[in-house]
Amino acid sequence: MSFRSRTTNMYPFLQKDGTLAKLPKPTARLAVHFGAIVEDVTSRPRNYSNFSHNNKDCTTEVTCRKRPGHKPCSAQIVAFLDVCPSVIAWHCPKCHDGGSIVGWEGKIWDKRKT
Description:
By secondary structure, this protein is α+β, with helices and mostly antiparallel strands. It has one domain (7-102). Helices cover 16% and strands 20% of the residues. It has one helix spanning 25-42, and strands at residues 7-9, 59-63, 76-81, 88-91, 98-102. A 5-stranded mixed beta sheet has the order 1-5-4-3-2, with helices on one face. It is globular. The N and C termini lie far apart (37 Å). 24% of the residues are buried.
């Protein structure tokens, strides 16, 4: 099974003071979508960071935003801290969209307790 993959850097969505930048609506929707994935993953207890394709603890509350065949996918995104802890890997188990998120550490979406 192969996944479509992209890397999203969260840093460009922010102003210098760390708040969300004023963005065109499509870009703002992406920032909100990927930010929700980061918030979900970083708010979990650390022992849920290990990944298995069958691990329900990696399923987020974030629904897929893809529209294969112009129909909403609507599956829940599976996401986890990757082997490199500054990378969040994510994928949709239904339509196989996926990728990684970087540039989120210490930003407004990072919900880890220090």
